[in-house]
Amino acid sequence: MKILVTDDSRVMRQIVIRTLRQAGYDDHDIVEAVDGRDAFDKVGSEKPDLVLSDWNMPEMTGIECLEALRASGSQVPFGFVTSEGSPEMREKAANAGALFLIAKPFNEDTFKDALDGVIS
């Protein structure tokens, strides 16, 4: 399985990747994107099986990326890993087609709870 990790912070991308590995998802290919625009482009070129995205990023936010992907016909599984998790954001994410929203702080158990049904 190929997982696209999207965050404008390189440190945060590394934390997400490390948490994926700690949660037991260490045998998957990881691709990184630096913002929503890069993620949108890499969904087309890299064909990931799952996108994990931050919400707030320059160029294109995570929700804008998800909406653009769905508008283009892409049904790639998409989840958010973000610093905010208000009920309004969760509703907006779900309405746009996100499978889950993991709010910071998170740990490997949080990832397992969100991803066990998505990653096989």
TrEMBL record:
Keywords, in A-Z order? Phosphoprotein
Question: Record's PROSITE patterns?
Answer: RESPONSE_REGULATORY
| Sequence ranges assigned to domain Response regulatory in this UniProt record | 2-119
Gene Ontology BP terms: phosphorelay signal transduction system
InterPro entries attached here?
A: CheY-like_superfamily, Sig_transdc_resp-reg_receiver, ST_Response_Regulator
Tell me if NADP is a UniProt keyword of this record.
no
Whether Methyltransferase counts among this entry's keywords is no
Q: Which residues cross the membrane?
A: none
Q: Which residues carry this modification: 4-aspartylphosphate?
A: 54
The protein here is known as Response regulator
User: In the UniProt record, what gene is named as encoding this protein?
Assistant: cheY-3
